[in-house]
Amino acid sequence: MEENRNMDDIEQNFLTQFSSMVTTDKDDLIKQFQSIGENLNYSTATFFLDMSNWNLQAAVGCYFDFMAFSRLPSMKFLNDLTVGKDEKVTPNTPFKQTWLLQNNGDISWPDGTYLKNETEEKKYSMPSLPPNDTTIATIEQLSPELVGPFITRWCLYTSNGTQFGETITSSIDVCQSGTLAITQQMSQLQPMACPDDEILETLSPMHQNPLQGTLEDTDMWG
């Protein structure tokens, strides 16, 4: 991956630079270590140097290994593509929600990434999404038996259970006159409507309907 190659190049440049430096003064070593990053404080530099027996080259290598391992991916919620969104749902009724998500970070989502409700164990597998790409996630829910607001929160997790990205908060009203489930059932009886137009509207605010501006018959013939 491109970002990994860039990180390796940066690390190699620093290791080559520091391999030619010979000093045993700890303050000098700390200053040299801090020069590899703007946000490196005294305590962090001291920690990695002390852990590496004050070997500057080894400390820099350990630091980059740690940073590469600890970097988390990112996720941004772009749009709710749910069929019948904003409608209410009847109690104890299954329904689906569909969301457009984007990797707005600079590293790909790792293999094994999944989407999960914070109060349930069911997991929805997600792709290893490259930076700036988008994906559609569809989840299944069951409304509660009691009427009122039904609020759930969803997050992405790495395979080891580390949460990352924005939290998706879903809020749907549950009432006896809800129509969401009926709307979704009816949509399955009709030709599947592709959500591409809505996705394009989300990704490009300047996107216009390609049919907009075509001439009607009355315009053509007066």
UniProtKB/TrEMBL annotation:
Residues 82-174 form the Nbr1 FW domain. InterPro entries: C6orf106_UBA-like, Ig-like_fold, Nbr1_FW, UBA-like_sf. GO terms for molecular function: ubiquitin binding. SUPFAM superfamilies: UBA-like. GO terms for cellular component: phagophore assembly site. It holds the Pfam family N_BRCA1_IG. This is Nbr1 FW domain-containing protein.
